[in-house]
Amino acid sequence: MKSKRQNMIIILGMHLSGTTMLAQMVCATGQAVKKPRMKADEQHPSGHYENVIIHNINRFLLYRAGGSWDNPPNHKDLIKYKVPKIFSKGHNVVKDPKLCLTLALWDFNGKIIVIKRSDNSVAKSLSKRNNIPYQKGLELCNIYRERLNIVLKNKEYHSVLYEDLLCGYDINRLANYLEINKIDEMKSVINVKMKHY
């Protein structure tokens, strides 16, 4: 199996479910997030692995529909909008948790990876990082999961578990899906210290 650059790899998952770690693993094999990229910060010392333009457009779409990432608008209000196709072009690795809500508004076409983490763990991490009450965190997990089911309807995708990747499991299956053989490079970026609780 040869390593090769895919036209596009789309990473989906709830906030604090491991999307950044997964994107970092993918990029360690030679893939890349298109510039401009979000800068590193204290919580993401290696970077967010997100394109600034995609991030900002998604924030704007949620705002226009009357919501935000932590207060998702009604899906019917959101799908009134459409992102001009030019903004979907030229990307290799695409990652933004808000895409769980907005993917249908973009013209992305590529291999989709969905990363999942237990609702309990995500809610605890949201509470620690964002001061979001635990119960609201659970509700957000449920909303994002329901919206993912909508945007992924009739689409082929690959699922991975955050807890498995953190332990180094299931990476071979992920690499096979992406047609990448750089297993050691993917494993090298795993950092258990990045857990938020």
C-alpha end-to-end distance: 38 Å
- Output the CATH topology: Rossmann fold
Alpha-carbon Rg, integer: 16 Å
Strand order of the largest sheet: 2-1-3-4
Please characterize this protein's 3D structure.
With 197 residues, the protein is an alpha/beta fold. It has one domain: P-loop containing nucleotide triphosphate hydrolases (Rossmann fold, 3-Layer(aba) Sandwich), CATH 3.40.50. It is built from 9 helices and 4 strands; from the N terminus they run E-H-H-H-E-H-E-H-H-E-H-H-H. It has a 4-stranded parallel sheet with strand order 2-1-3-4. Helix 5 packs across helix 6. It is globular and about 45 Å long.
Structure characteristics:
197 residues, alpha/beta, Rossmann fold, 40% helix, globular
Element layout with pairings:
Elements: E1 9-12, H1 19-27, H2 52-64, H3 75-78, E2 93-95, H4 99-102, E3 111-116, H5 119-130, H6 134-151, E4 158-161, H7 162-166, H8 171-178, H9 183-187
Parallel strand pairs: 1-2, 1-3, 3-4
Helix pairs in contact: 5-6
In short:
The protein is α/β, with parallel strands linked by helices. The chain has helices at residues 19-27, 52-64, 75-78, 99-102, 119-130, 134-151, 162-166, 171-178, 183-187; strands at 9-12, 93-95, 111-116, 158-161. The protein has 9 helices and 4 strands, in the order βαααβαβααβααα.
